[in-house]
TrEMBL record:
A GO molecular-function annotation: methyltransferase activity
InterPro entries listed in its UniProt record: DNA_methylase_N6_adenine_CS, MethylTrfase_TaqI-like_dom, N5-glutamine_MTase, SAM-dependent_MTases_sf
CDD domains in alphabetical order: AdoMet_MTases (cd02440)
Entry's Gene Ontology BP terms: DNA modification; methylation
Keyword Amino-acid biosynthesis: no
Protein name, UniProt field: S-adenosyl-L-methionine-dependent methyltransferase
Ranges that cross the membrane: none
Keywords noted in UniProt: Methyltransferase, Transferase
Domain of life: Eukaryota
GO cellular component: a single term: mitochondrion
Domain called Type II methyltransferase M.TaqI-like: residue spans: 163-256
Cited Pfam families: Eco57I (PF07669)
Keyword Methyltransferase: yes
Amino acid sequence: MPRLLPRVLHHARKIDPLLPLVLQATRDLASAKNELRWLKEFVIEQQSRHPKHDDRKVLDQRLRQVCIDRARGKPLQYIMGSEYFGDLEISCEKGVLIPRQETATSVTHLIILLHHSSNNKTKTPLPNNLKLLDLCTGTGCIPLLSHYLFTSIHKRKAENLEVVGVDISPLALKLAKKNLQNLIAEGTIQKKPNLRFLQADVLSSTDGHGDAAIPSLKSALEHYNFTSDLAGSGKSSWDIIISNPPYISPQAFARTTTRSVKRYEPRLALVPPYTASDKDTNQGDLFYPHLLSIAASHSAKIVLFEVADLQQAIRVSAMAIHQNIWDGIQIWRDDPMAAETVGDTALDGKVKVVGQGHGRSVVVYRGVGKQWLGVED
Ligand SMILES: C[S@@+](CC[C@H](N)C(=O)[O-])C[C@H]1O[C@@H](n2cnc3c(N)ncnc32)[C@H](O)[C@@H]1O
């Protein structure tokens, strides 16, 4: 990381004595000014909730402390306790990955595409009871945003929507449930949604043992179906499966992941576990074969997986081609809505590359999924 020039720090100090601290984290003055303003608003707002401590000295100390935390690289979202994901304010806590805007962009694009084609009367409509499964859910941001968009943009009734988020981490599940309650309380998500968060290990086909045993996805979903309001609708099939799994190889984590992410965000959410037989790249890709086989066995019509970059997108697309069950595969870049380079394809034209920016997700579809997505021949 390049050093900050003394004259830049001097200039920042003249504007505000706390600005050089925030500048250590942001590295540019305009962002540092914005962040310092947000941090001041945040500290004042917190203080106002405890009128007894309404003392200028306490406020100044608190503000200085959050600026020091920021200088040490603590993410703003962990300090302030939330991040926007699309239109939703999602609570963030240490130990659970902070949701990223690129993820929100891909999920929103998917749901807007489904909306366009559901307005087209010649196409097969989405099912009356739409089922969406999000694997590796973290804060629950994907199920929550999906639920919100289906009920707001699609005007789908909440009772016709079944959404489940799955994660291995108890911390993540606790936060996801808290986020759901917050969004219901503020009226962003309708009351009593059919939206649940379950614990399961998506990499394991058998249940764990012992006190804190983690169930396999199969048994978590079986148990859930048993108690679900829609239990009568039968077997565990999911129309749409989304996942933003851990996908960074250990080498990329060591070399390219920022200090702040390494220090503050959970490795469990970023790097797949080590398996002795795997090479470094394979370890980064570890989740995808499991996720694709889950999608195959749960009759998914559309699948959206986030990936690190175009190279990983191409490897995941090759895995999907190898399954030989999908009618189409697309790679979406960071901005999938931007006009793409005409004829941009990968893997000998078998995979269409959509939008502009870095490779961000792989979308596979089959059967009616093709019509739901509005893909033309
Ligand atoms: C990259 S984060 C994604 C979080 C969230 N979906 C998002 O987009 O912000 C990956 C998540 O996978 C979870 N995870 C890691 N290993 C898992 C496993 N074997 N089974 C289920 N979830 C797992 C982590 O706890 C983490 O919350």
